Amino acid sequence: MKLITAIIQPDVLEDVEIALAQAGASGMTVSEVSGYGRQRGHTEVYRGAEYTIDFIAKVRIEILAAEAEVEGIISIICESARTGNVGDGKVWSSTVEDVVRIRTGERGAEAL
User: Fold this and answer.
1) Of 2, 62, 7, which is closest to residue 30 (Cα–Cα)?
2) How many domains in the chain?
3) Where are the O-UMP-tyrosine residues found in this chain (predicted)?
4) Which of 14, 47, 49, 99 is deepest in the core (most CB within 10 A)?
5) pLDDT tens across the length of the chain (112 residues)
6) Would you give the end-to-end CA distance of the chain in angstroms?
């Protein structure tokens, strides 16, 4: 099992969600996060004064999936979240040792 984590721009979340649903992804967790990568924030002008915004609003998606589904899910996220601009985000996967469904006590692949 793998945990797929993606940090994407908030305005492409709906596109990613629709693409994953069409591909049959069973569920995901979405969190609003803020941070920066290479772009190191940006500056904005408000009432004539310039302000530096260090942290940029992003969305974090987490999906627990079987190993066979990982590459497909990562491809779908990349294709539907890509705008071609700096700050499109990142996707990575991590190995998950065990999962337990709290309601039934099922473990491993059955808990997905």
Assistant:
1) 62
2) 1
3) 51
4) 99
5) 999 999 999 999 999 999 999 998 888 999 999 887 776 766 777 788 877 777 888 999 999 999 999 999 999 999 999 999 888 999 999 999 999 999 999 998 888 8
6) 9
Task: Report CA 24 to chain centroid distance, whole Å.
Answer: 17
Q: Residue 20 maps to which CATH number?
A: 3.30.70.120
Contact 43, 50 (CB under 8 A): yes
Please report the DSSP string for the chain in residue order: -EEEEEEE-GGGHHHHHHHHHHTT----EEEEEEE-STT--EEEEETTEEEEE-SEEEEEEEEEE-GGGHHHHHHHHHHHH--SSTT-EEEEEEE----B-TTT--BGGGG-
